[in-house]
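Quick one, T. Sequence first:
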Amino acid sequence: MIDYKPLNEENLSQQLADIPKYKWQEFFRITDDLKNSQKFGEIDGGIINKEGISILPQYEATKEVSLFVKKCYEIPLMVDFDWMSWEEGSNLLNTPKTDYASLPLETLVKLLTAIIRADRFHEGYILSKCEKGSLLGVIEVIRNSFIYK
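Structure tokens:
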């Protein structure tokens, strides 16, 4: 378990502005590795072995995905809010071709939180969001918001 102090939704803009530049640079270095990955993880199992025992599927993240998640906790980029009831976030993540560039940084960081937290309860969720481009799309817009500042 990663020990972290999450950001507070109430004054999120200021907390994000207070994150030192070097931490953002570390985040972007790790996200470069994630973006350049050919693979994000594997799902093993989901079979019945020769003894007739069902082996449930199990997701194994790549090193790049694991480092990305760890860095999101360390910076921190995780927001303390009710992500499970956040309908806007669910709609954004499940709508093909969402225009992430139209969203404020606060919403993008909340989307990161929702993806990472959902993976703890729905194994392989982060893998699906990587493969569908949602996570990488969010990351790219966060990067661009800093490049063009």
